[in-house]
Amino acid sequence: TTGDLADIYANNAKSLIFRTNGAVTALTLDGSQNATFVNTATATKFRATSQLVSADNMFMAGGQFYLGAEDSNTDDTYRMYPSSGAFLLQSRESGTWTTRFTIDTSGNVEINTGQLKPQGNNTQSLGNTARRWNFYANTGDFGGSIYARGGIKDDGGDFGTSGQVLTTNGT
Prior knowledge:
The chain is an all-beta fold. It is built from no helices and 11 strands. Strand 5 (51-54) and strand 6 (58-61) form a beta hairpin. The termini are far apart.
């Protein structure tokens, strides 16, 4: 094969440019030691020693993954990370990170702030006879209604009948 197949040259800006296929720039190393790849950089393992930033509002540093910004100091962003075996999702508002939900080491999900509610004003199915959900309410204002087809059991295993209000001992 004849002609220019590839070349490497330096310019006045103290950049080192790698070109392939005659005159197509593939890689530029600038005077600040930043590398710019024109296409895809492929590796079986890619390791960032400090942080990894994507121009698509993703950022990774210190074992935490951030969405919505290229740093950890921007409001209206989210971060996810493990802590003592649990998985946390947090959001940042007014300079403060707040845990929104946690998946603990037993696989339980805890909603730390906000509410779990159906989209719009729709009725949502929470399972069938093979998959049942247990609801627990602490003392305080429930502020809504519970509709049940069948019976409702109290923590003693007793069912209420004909509109009976159950207490913890089923009376």
